[in-house]
Amino acid sequence: MTTLTTVDVLFGAVGLITAASAVLAVTTHHLVHAALWLVVTLGTLAGCYLILGAELVALVQLLVYVGAVVVLVLFALMLTRAPMGRSPEHSSGFIQRIAAALVGAGTTALLAAVLLPALGGDIRPTRAGDTKGIATQLFGSWVWPFELLSLLLLVALIAALAVSRMPTTSLPSTTEAVAETPANSAGGESR
């Protein structure tokens, strides 16, 4: 019989917080609250990685997802002038929610049916992570693709800011255009 250790209990607690905040991120009606619950989800997922001993993955999770992707999502919400409160036009109906819950439960059952027998009930030892080897590869041969990607994201961010600052001009409608023709504006209507 196996005994629960403090690490097991801590991993379970952080995992429960991660799952609960993920459910809140997809069920809340406020877009900004959904993005903030996503921050909690990704942050606690980094905590799960730390508990498992994968410090590099936890750091990358915090830097890339919490630090960049969520900030980009919040920036996009601000640029699109998304509603801050409940929005009926962005809310899905009851049937859609039930269908999404059924698809999610089916996917979970399928993954459990495939992965649990494949892994078995055995506790498998893990090997220590080779952080130095990963860092050498990441900052050696893969540094230029990451830098180009960050440059692309920076250009996209600046372009989005420029587009959001452009003045919005609407074209005159046809009735306004006919009303403002020189014949009608000079008072030359014939009776």
Structural topology:
Elements: H1 6-27, H2 31-51, H3 55-79, H4 94-119, H5 131-140, H6 143-165, H7 174-179, H8 182-185
Helix pairs in contact: 1-2, 2-3
Structure at a glance:
The protein is an all-alpha fold. It has helices at 6-27, 31-51, 55-79, 94-119, 131-140, 143-165, 174-179, 182-185. Among the domains are: 1-85, Up-down Bundle (Four Helix Bundle (Hemerythrin (Met), subunit A)); 131-163.
Describe the fold and architecture.
This protein is mainly alpha-helical and 191 residues long. Among the domains are: 85 residues, NADH-ubiquinone/plastoquinone oxidoreductase chain 6, subunit NuoJ (Four Helix Bundle (Hemerythrin (Met), subunit A)), CATH 1.20.120; 33 residues. Helix content is 72%, strand content 0%. It contains eight helices and no strands. The longest helix is centred in the middle third of the chain and has 26 residues. The chain is globular.
User: What low-confidence regions span 5 or more consecutive residues with pLDDT below 50?
Assistant: none
- Rg measurement, Å: 27 Å
CATH level-two architecture of the domain at 1-85? Up-down Bundle
CATH class of the domain at 1-85: Mainly Alpha
Distance between the termini: 103 Å
